[in-house]
Amino acid sequence: MGDERGLLSRLLTAAAPGLILFSAVLLMITPLKVFGHSVPLPLAPFIVIFLYAAYAPNALPAPITFAAGLLQDLLFASPLGLWATVFLSLHYAVLAQHDYLKGRLHRVIAVLFAMLVAAVGAILWGLSSLVFAEVLPVRPLAVQLLVTILMYPACAYVFLTVRRSERGPSPA
């Protein structure tokens, strides 16, 4: 019984990053209205991908990130591969900076998040404009990116608090 519980716990721990990322993708299709007006949702998958790539790079494999991007493509009726390309661009950009991020202040990491989200947003806008053969409006995406950047500190706090609690108290 104990071995089964340990196995189940390990399976859930291994699956959690992917489940969280897929939940973030599903959150993107949730309509949010306040006083009858649509409210831009943060690009929650960007936050999830960044946090796992920065703090637990082995926990979220690139194929899962790719699959989440394909799911977002299907849910948004985007050209197949658009979101997958954007998600993988962010994933690999953070992995490339992993050594730099170690031991940095959270403020520095938040600034890097903002810079990478802006860069990936520009890639998303450029690819979308190219695919649809017209210059798409920048403002809706810019607002969504701003909301994402503003949500990052709270999400990072929760993520890091949970990670700390999973590891238990640090030895004195």
TrEMBL record:
Keyword set, alphabetical order: Cell membrane, Cell shape, Membrane, Transmembrane, Transmembrane helix
Bilayer-crossing regions: 12-32, 39-56, 76-96, 108-128, 140-160
GO annotation, biological process: regulation of cell shape
Coiled-coil intervals, chain numbering: none
Compartments (UniProt record): Cell membrane
First and last residue of the signal peptide: none
Domain of life of the source: Bacteria
Recorded GO CC terms: plasma membrane
Protein topology in the membrane: Multi-pass membrane protein
Chief location category: membrane
Record InterPro entries: Cell_shape_determining_MreD (IPR007227)
Keyword Iron annotated: no
Keyword field contains Transmembrane: yes
Family named by the database record: Belongs to the MreD family.
Protein name as annotated: Rod shape-determining protein MreD
Organism: Parvularcula bermudensis (strain ATCC BAA-594 / HTCC2503 / KCTC 12087)
